[in-house]
Each structure stands twice: as C-alpha cells, then as structure tokens.
Amino acid sequence: QVEVMESGGGVVPPGGSLTLSCTTSGYTFSDYSMGWFRQRPDAEREGVAFISNRVGRNTYYEDSVKGRFTVSRDNAKNTVFLRMDNLKPEDTAIYFCAVGRGGWGRKAADMRYWGQGTRVFVSS
C-alpha cells in the first residue's frame, strides 16, 4: 500500500521561507518522479515543481515560483522537499505531493498517488 504524507505547512509572513516535506512508503521511491501541486483559494489545482527519478537530474518549475522555490529529493529517506523562499500572499494554498507514474512527468495526469495536502498561509 502506497502512502504519501506532506508536512511542514504553516503561517509565514511575506518574504519568509518554508520547507515542505513529503514522505512516502510502499514502493521503490527512487524509481519514480515526484511533483508538487497547489490549490489556491477559488482556483483549480496547478503544478508547482517537479523532479525526475533517480538522482533528480531534471526539475521543472511553474513560472510564478521560478527562482523562489526549489525541489529536491532524498532517496535514502523516501522524501521529497519543496523549499519556498520569498513567499508572497499569492502563494497561500494547499500544497499537495504526488508520485509520478514513471521517471518524469509535469502534469496531474502523469501522477499516480497523491497526499492529503498541507496548508500554507502567507500573511502579515
């Protein structure tokens, strides 16, 4: 049984930083890509950051987070991270972690397993 669990959300002031973690189990973590998505209030879910399998050679970021967010993975810990710097109020959202169907993917349809999400609230 595959399990996906996000953590690290919270309240942070504009300009602040936060690191989200996503720990998984039940499959060979290193074989699959990982993705971070978010759903902002009154908006549809959108892809934020993606990392390929194995050593994570390939990454992709949505335009609004480029230069501020960094995705990384630790295969020994079955965990993927999303480091978020210079946070803005518009980053307020529920952030979801997802396991890819293969070695690389950048869309929701490319993901197979999803976590329940962790809330991030950016406000002064």
Structural class by secondary-structure content: mainly beta
End-to-end CA span: 40 Å
Strand content: over 45%
- Low-pLDDT parts are none
Large-scale geometry: globular
- Rounded Rg: 13 Å
Order of SSEs, N→C? EEEEEEEEEEE
**Main sheet attributes: strand count, strand direction, barrel closure:** 7 strands, mixed
Helical run tally: 0
Q: Could you tell me the number of beta strands?
A: 11
Helix content: under 10%
State mean pLDDT (0 to 100 scale). 97
Keywords for this structure?
single chain; 124 residues; mainly beta; seven-stranded mixed sheet; four-stranded antiparallel sheet; 11 strands; 0% helix
Architecture overview:
With 124 residues, the protein is mostly beta strands. Strands 2, 4, 5, 6, 9, 10 and 11 form a seven-stranded mixed beta sheet that branches. Strands 1-3-8-7 form a four-stranded antiparallel beta sheet, with no helix packed on it. It is globular, with a radius of gyration of 13 Å. The mean pLDDT is 97.
